[in-house]
Amino acid sequence: MLLSIALIILVSLMLGRLFKLINMPAIIGMLITGILLGPYVLDLINDRILDMSADLRQMALIVILLRAGLALKLEDIKKIGRPALFMAFVPATFEIIGVILLSTWLFNLSFLEAAILGAILSAVSPAVVVPKMIKLMESGLGKEKRIPQLILAGASLDDIYVIILFTSFLQSFIQQDLSFAMLYQLPLSIVIGVGLGLLAGYVLVLFFKKWHMRDTVKVLILAAVSFLLITLEQVLKPDLLISGLLSIMVMGGMIHHQYAPLAKRLVHKFEKIWVIAEMMLFVLVGAAVDLSVIPSVGIFSVLLIFLALIFRLTGVLVALIKTELNFKEKCFVGISYVPKATVQAAIGAIPLAMGIPSGHLMLTIAVLAILITAPLGAIGIDLSAPHLLSHQHRQNG
């Protein structure tokens, strides 16, 4: 196992650095590391690590959501208002509809399998988008209309929306029933998830203010509470559906709202944890990819990914109707919503692990989506920002 961990770290760092030198996301190097070291190529990853793969990916997802929640400013969402709310679900909904229509035709999937695949593909990647938007905020591009803040808020909420839908579709597939009950179970799951998150965040703030301890210990407590929320979700199924993942993000947001200085410090701690969590996440997803599947689905998968993006970009334009953004700025927001990586890596292999017949296909398409859209979106943001966005002084001048 030690040899496997050493190889994962060294090869990931080397390939990640190589891709960064050519202005590509380092996560592509990590994904390729997993493919190369995985059981379908060199078979150098210990079976015990692969057996823990699902749990390690879920832990990485929890780190993502805690980071996002702790950095999420409710004030920014209030200031941006309706566009942020619409950007949280309209583009993803359009893409899910597109994937359902296309994948039932291209791959002969059932409606629920197509819906699961749509949920996997439709999330924006915080790993690509967040650093780019922070850089834009520092440069002043799009500052007056708060475009980077709009994208940050919308993308963070978009991920939660997609994960909730993914969980609901997966549960429906297991029960083999897309019943009308889902129409009230989904909002109920959201309401209970938000309520638990607010309560947990409020209690933790009181606890942290009363008992002083190192920030590292607070990080451990946050992680433990997050694991308990996920466990509670699993224990209550199917009698009561709650969204543990939503609770985790809301908990982080509540801590930021009630105790902002602490939240900022904890974000830095989780950024350090994310270095290893990100590496394990993308390597283990790459390791699960069966390369022999790609030739039979490759062309159709690429076609599905690009056609689904058209649905997504249409959703962006619809979400931004009646806003003060001009057409160039709307195009930039659309480009910023192209990259896929983190959520696809976190949930893309779950259907396969649960024994869904089309699980290999879903994972293969998820990985291809990362390989195609992560560099495409990252380069697109960098190249288009100076041409599509304006500095504040230019707007005023």
Key terms for this structure?
single chain; 397 residues; mainly alpha; Na+/H+ antiporter like fold; 19 helices; globular; disordered C terminus
Description of the structure:
With 397 residues, the protein is an all-alpha fold. The chain has one domain (55-396): Na+/H+ antiporter like fold, CATH 1.20.1530.20. The chain is built from 19 helices and no strands. α1 (2-21) runs antiparallel to α2 (26-37), α4 (53-71) crosses α11 and α6 packs across α9 (147-175). The radius of gyration is 20 Å and the shape is globular. 50% of the residues are buried.
Topology overview:
Blueprint: H1 2-21, H2 26-37, H3 47-51, H4 53-71, H5 74-80, H6 82-106, H7 111-121, H8 126-139, H9 147-175, H10 181-210, H11 215-236, H12 244-258, H13 260-287, H14 294-319, H15 327-336, H16 342-347, H17 350-353, H18 359-388, H19 392-396
Helicity level? over 70%
Could you name the CATH topology? Answer: Na+/H+ antiporter like fold
User: What is the 3D form?
Assistant: globular
The low-pLDDT segments are 393-397
Number of strands: 0
Report the mean per-residue pLDDT as an integer: 86
CATH architecture: Up-down Bundle
Task: Indicate the structural class.
Answer: mainly alpha
Distance between the termini: 61 Å
Q: Give the tally of structural domains.
A: 1
Biggest beta sheet attributes: none
Determine the strand fraction and express it as a percent band: under 5%
